[in-house]
Every structure is written in C-alpha cells, then in structure tokens.
Amino acid sequence: MAKTAQNPVKSAETTFEVLDALKDLDGAGVTELAQHLDIPKSTVHNYLSTLEQEEYVVNRDGVYEVGLRFLELGAYARHREKLFEIAKPEVDRLAEETGELANILVEEHGRGSYLYRARGDKAVQVKAHVGTRVPLHTTALGKAILAHMSTERVDAIVDRHGLGGEASNSISNRAELEQALADVRERGVAFDDEERLEGLRCVAAPVLNHDDEIIGAISVSGPTNRFRGDRFREELPQKVLEVANVIELNVTYS
Amino acid sequence: MAKTAQNPVKSAETTFEVLDALKDLDGAGVTELAQHLDIPKSTVHNYLSTLEQEEYVVNRDGVYEVGLRFLELGAYARHREKLFEIAKPEVDRLAEETGELANILVEEHGRGSYLYRARGDKAVQVKAHVGTRVPLHTTALGKAILAHMSTERVDAIVDRHGLGGEASNSISNRAELEQALADVRERGVAFDDEERLEGLRCVAAPVLNHDDEIIGAISVSGPTNRFRGDRFREELPQKVLEVANVIELNVTYS
DNA sequence: CGCTCTGTCCCAGATGTTTGAACAACTGTT
DNA sequence: AACAGTTGTTCAAACATCTGGGACAGAGCG
Description:
The structure is a homodimer. By secondary structure, the first copy, chain A, is α+β, with helices and mostly antiparallel strands. Chain A folds into 2 domains: about 10-70, Winged helix-like DNA-binding domain superfamily/Winged helix DNA-binding domain (Arc Repressor Mutant, subunit A), CATH 1.10.10; about 80-254, GAF domain (Beta-Lactamase, 2-Layer Sandwich), CATH 3.30.450.40. Chain A contains 9 helices and 8 strands. Chain A has a 6-stranded antiparallel beta sheet with strand order 5-4-3-8-7-6, with helices on both faces. The first copy, chain A, has a two-stranded antiparallel sheet with strand order 1-2. Chain A is globular. Chain B binds a DNA duplex through helix 1 and helix 3.
C-alpha cells in the first residue's frame, strides 16, 4: 500500500517540502526557509519564485506564505467527495440539535481527514481545523471507519502508520485494536474517551454505502462534563446513529 | 507586478499543470492526462506516482484524483487570513437575516478569491464554490475592493489581467472602471447587476483596517426578482454596510 | 484466444536543476 | 552619514535529474 514511486520526480518532492515548511513556519523568508530545510537559499529562492509565479504562494512584504489557490484545489477535492455534499446539512442539524461540535471524517492514504466541522452553540473550541489529518485508531471517527474495513485493509494501514498513541488511553497493539473494532461493530457506534485530547469525549457512527462499503464517519464531540451517563451512552449514540442512517439513505438515492 | 521567475523550476510548473489538469478533467488515468497535456505518458506517470507517494493525489481504482491533502493546505491558507476568522460569524448572520447567499472575498495576485460563502434559507444555487477565483472588475465584491486601492495598484492589476468581461453589462475600458469605482467610493457600496451571472444581483461593501487599507469585501447576492426597488437600493446596502462596519471594528481590536 | 486497451518500468541522452559566490538593497546602530 | 550585518536576488558552470521512446504485463472485450 505504501507505494514508493519507482522514478520519482525529486523536484516535485522538494516543491511540497517547501510548501510544508512554509506552513509549519507559518510564513517565512528565503533565508529562514533555507535554514529550516537545510537547502541552499538560491535553490529555495528558485522554488519560491516559481510558486509565486504560479500563484500558489504569495509574498507579503518579504514573507512568503501559502496562497489561497490551495483553497481552490482543497475545496474542489472536498466537493468531489459525495459524502460531504450529502452529509453537510445533516451534520449541521446534528450540531444544532446537540449544541456540540459535529464532524465528518473520511479515510485517505490510511489516515483520517476531517472534511467538515459544524459548531453548535455550546461547541468546544478545538484548535484542529478542517483538513487536519489524524491517525485513524486514535479517534472515535477513525475506529468507526476501521471497524467496517476488511482485515487486510486494516493490516495494511497498521503496517504503514503503526499504532503510535497520542495520549494515555490509546490503543497500542493490534489485539487491543481488534477488540475495540469488534466492540464498535457490536454497538454500531464508536466512543472516544479522552484518547486523543484530554477532557474531550466523542461519539461516532460509520456511514456505509448500499454495498456496505465504508465511505466515512460522523460524530459529535464535547467536554467530558457534558458527555457522561445516559447522554454519553444512550442519547447521543442514538442521535448520531439516526443521522448516519439518514445520510446513508441519501447516499443510496443519489 | 506580474513577476516571472528568473530561474523557474520547470518541474514545479509541470507538477501544477498535472494537478490542474486532474482538476479540469475531474480525475483521469495516465493516458488520458498525457493526451490532454501533450506530454509522454511515462512522464505523466512519474509525476502522478510521485504525487501519490506524497499523498497529494489519490488513485481510486485506476483513476487519479486530487487528494484531500490540499484541503489541509487550503484550510490553513484560509485560516491565516484574519478577515475570515473575524468575518465568518457576521456573514453567517447576514445570510440568516436576509435569507440570501452571503460572501467573503479577498484579493490575491490581482484576482478575487472567495474565502467563504454562507447560505440563507432562500439562497440561490450557484455553482461556484469556496476558493473560486474571479476577475475583480466583474463582481460587486471585486469593485468594492478595487475602489479602495491606490491607482497604481489598480493599474497594475488591469495591466496584468485586462478587463475581459464575462457578460454583457461588464466594464470594458479603464475609463468605465474608474467611473464605477468613483461611484462605489461615493455610495460606500458596490452593485452587480447581472454582470457576471445572468439573473443574479449583488450588493457588496468593502472592509478596511484601521489604516484604511482594504483587506477584503463582503456581499449578499440573489435573484433579480428579489433584488429590486428599495430592497436592492436601500435596505440591503444598509444591512451589508452595517455588517461590514461590525467586522471593521472587530478587525481593529484583535 | 487474440486484439487493444490500459498502467508500469527501464535506461541513455538531453535538459533542467543545483550551487556557491557575488551583488544589491535594506535595517538598524554607532 | 558611514557602516556592518542583514536580507533577497542573479548568474553560469557542473552535474544530477528529468524526459521520453520503447518494451512489458495485465485487464477487458469481442
């Protein structure tokens, strides 16, 4: 699965290294970037000026920054996902009715990408924004997705990305993961009990197409003090499942 | 302004040509892309496999598609714009209160990029999504922005992109543009009377920072049959201006 | 089964990329 | 006002890399 290109175009790799660095540094000058990447500054300058010419990067008085043209590509990529178009209004409703933060996640390259995030009136402030990529096994959303993949696919993903945990409660070996996924299949929903972010709980449900293939997952997340007891174990799971079912119906007839 | 790189990295250019083609074709195979770009398919294959390895492109049973990693970069680029963070809730409110489509636009590389778009309950369906780039002189939003730029900057933009109109009512020479911009400055708001899209009208207001520099514009747009008479000339302009003023206040104190 | 599509691989030649060094343009300090 | 220490930018030679034709395997189809 983790294919490595036989004949990679190194300049293309470098191009994205430059862009990634620009993102990590939150904008930077030529010299700073060159030091960060350990590449001669004339080389960095060549890339930056090319990227600027192509309008993928913008130079704001001496500081190069990631340009909005990526928003064009990104919005397009999201628009192309059937799930987004169909699930968005339902997830908006989910956020409104629960007052919490509601999410849509899909798998790509073995990781989870947040497609959308709707805020209810009491929604927690989470730093991660749309587009953020997370390891699948560390979130309820990801577990909901993994639970409905073939064993081979799960194996491939674990082989590629490992099971490195971000917090204490995390899953750390394959047996634990399998147990967790069995739980998810049995209950129909996945839980996240402060596994990725402290104080944050989450309830997620998978979204399957008419061929029972997993196409993504939706969730609500919120603070532990509001996510407890019956609300956490009964009320919210039921709600999330109901919304997931509506989405599945709409996916089938479209 | 239209700087051309002295020592451009051609492979970087090609990389984005490939991505652009992938977008235009809405996903494609190696051969199809090669024909479209008039490049040998082995070369295209090198780029695609590199892009896939870097996770910027995804291969769904034989068809390469633009990947969600661009959503990561795009969402980041948008998040970096102060205007987006501040204006979003206000524009949401604008959409809700008017029931129409409300927008945020900023200038980049002499063109307009839609940062955000909020839908009221009666909002028209417009194909353009977030990230779409438009010539500034063809929209109310763009005119609101141009009206508050220095003459030199306007000249530079016109030199670079011309005044090619997309529809009949469009501005087609520099004198007409200057007249239109003077109008905008006088009234405080800009109008679009089916200039870009038939049957669609638009009211836009500029957003300035504390130094009176233009940082973007907001608008409401809707069908001609709802945008007429007092509502089009008085009510909506006042509303949009009010929201723009609130945003300006928040921009200043942040 | 054979035909025609794919996508993938390989390697030599041509081309583009890399690189340090030199330069110009700023910034802030003395 | 001159200076030292920045920065971004340019250039051309050396060489690493990309290009591109051709060959190959596999899928799909009649």
